[in-house]
Amino acid sequence: MFRNNYDNDSVTFSPQGRIFQVEYAQEAVKQGSVVVGLVSKTHAVLVGLKRNAEELSSYQKKVIEIDSHMGIAIAGLSSDARVLSNFMKQQSLGSRMTYGRAIPLDRIVTQIGDRAQTNTQHYGKRPYGVGLLVAGVDDAGPHLFEFQPSGLTHEMLACAIGARSQMARTYLERNLDEFPESSRDQLISHGLKALRETLSQDKELTVENTTVGIVGLAPKGSKAKIETFKLYDGQSIGPLLEALDGTTDGGEEGGEMEVDTQ
């Protein structure tokens, strides 16, 4: 009844100990189009479903390269994602200029978590209405982190956020044991299959609405230590979708039926 008395700013707690503006920001993440992240022993993959506001507009960007060893996938308000991605790019560039090396994944994720959590402590500010999946590789190997508007961050083996993401999480949980030993192409395939689980009956993955980002360790015998972040978008993702259709002809109908019943 008195809920509106406690949601005018982000520093007022309700009698139940809740901060409604943080919950509103988390709801904005749930309304965004879905993104999926997976990690194996050698690679980390981000897969996103792009959305256009209307027929005359272009599709929103869902996966952003931060540095050669790291990228993010966004779900929620694109404007807030732009602020955070620019901040992450500045921190990455500062690390290379100051220390001559790429910034570790856990450090930059902690920095954006602190930045977001600060917004829940000061009157006149609001939480960022965006969730991020941060994928990258450092000296310890590939990593995947989830960032929430409250400032909470934690490392994940696989994750999905956004609208209808529960069906993607169900797929990820069902196949979790396969991810650590998966090859680069197998990990991409798993990500696209999880993304396809979230589609409604009348939609399918196309070169216009699908995007993939991948980063990982370089193959043995290569001079480089890492395989730099590569973004597949537009026509470049066509072969990946064709390979996915070729490997799932037998079970595709069953997967769509499962989506429709939920």
TrEMBL record:
Listed PROSITE patterns: PROTEASOME_ALPHA_1, PROTEASOME_ALPHA_2
Pfam families associated with the record: Proteasome, Proteasome_A_N
Localization terms from the record: Cytoplasm; Nucleus
SUPFAM superfamilies according to UniProt: N-terminal nucleophile aminohydrolases (Ntn hydrolases)
Cited PANTHER family: PROTEASOME SUBUNIT ALPHA/BETA
Family: Belongs to the peptidase T1A family.
Name of the featured protein: Proteasome subunit alpha type
Organism: Talaromyces islandicus
